Amino acid sequence: MSEKPGHSRDASPDARCPRRAPRQEARKLDPERSCRLLLEAALDEFAAKGFAGARVQDIADRAGVNKQLIAYYFGGKEGLWNELSRRWAEREASFNQPDAPLDEVMVHYLHDALDDPRGSRLNAWVGLTGGEPEAGREDLSDLERRKAAGEIGEELDTGAVLLLLMGAVAAPVVTPHMVRSVLGMDPQSPEFREFYTEQLRRIVRRLG
């Protein structure tokens, strides 16, 4: 369920950083640190303003580095987006395992969104403003496999199920006022987290 470009906070300090032939002035820099700062800053800016609204200069200012390093390491703003997407895909693959029950996988997505809401907020901005780099068609093969195994009802469309689950995960982050209105709970409270986690488990199990 690739709903977000990435969580660079989870990348290890020695995670791959795009490299080019070093210039003289770049040899004095710590490339891993610069890349990490830029990716964190980009995720913050994208989450706050969307891809279209985020400015290269603001990303650089937030990271505390020269904006030329964005082009140097990533080839521009789109390169930052693509690297965040790549890192999110790696993180996603680490917990969306074929042998993990679907309800457990969705709980992991939920907790990931509650712990770091930037990805869900970013996707909300993209939906409202557009302008993000072109993405390919969503891979539904995992849900199709789960459907064949009985985790999803035969009469249900896997694409519709994916949209439903993505909405369920994102709702507490992008519409927290509705959580307060419907449930009378603070979406950031431990009580809500416990309650909603169990409800999501039950809903997902009912899909089968």
Structural write-up:
- The structure is a single chain.
- By secondary structure, the protein is mostly helical.
- 64% of the residues lie in helices and 0% in strands.
- The protein has helices at residues 31-53, 56-63, 68-74, 77-95, 102-115, 118-129, 141-148, 158-174, 176-183, 190-206.
- Helix 1 crosses helix 4, helix 1 packs parallel to helix 6 (118-129) and helix 8 crosses helix 9.
- The model is unreliable at 8-15 and 19-28 (pLDDT under 50).
Low-pLDDT stretches: 8-15, 19-28
Distance between the termini: 18 Å
Gyration radius (Cα, Å) is 19 Å
Please state roughly what percent of the residues sit in beta strands, choosing from under 5%, 5-15%, 15-25%, 25-35%, 35-45% or over 45%. Answer: under 5%
Count of extended strands: 0
Specify the number of helices. Answer: 10
Overall body shape:
globular
Order of helices and strands: HHHHHHHHHH
Helix content: 55-70%
Q: Write down the overall mean pLDDT.
A: 86
Report the structural category. mainly alpha
Major sheet: size, sense and barrel closure? none
